[in-house]
Specification:
Elements: H1 5-17, H2 25-35, H3 43-54
Helix pairs in contact: 2-3
GO molecular function: DNA binding; DNA-binding transcription factor activity
Family: Belongs to the WUS homeobox family.
Pfam families: Homeodomain (PF00046)
C-alpha cells in the first residue's frame, strides 16, 4: 500500500491533532472508509500505520 498525500494528511491529523493512538476495529473501519475516497486502502493498512507510528 502506497498512501496518497491526502491519506497521509488525514492519518497524521487523527494521530497528532485528535490523539488517536490505538483505534478500535470500528474506528479502523470508519477511517478506512473515509480514506478510500482518496485511493485504495484496507483496514489492515490503517491498523499497521498506527502501530508503526506508536513505536
Amino acid at each position: 500500500w502506497t498512501p496518497t498525500t491526502e491519506q497521509i494528511r488525514i492519518l497524521r491529523e487523527l494521530y497528532y491533532s485528535n490523539g488517536v493512538r490505538s483505534p478500535t476495529a470500528e474506528q479502523i473501519q470508519r477511517i478506512s472508509a473515509r480514506l478510500r475516497q482518496y485511493g485504495k486502502i484496507e483496514g489492515k493498512n490503517v491498523f499497521y500505520w498506527f502501530q508503526n507510528h506508536k513505536a
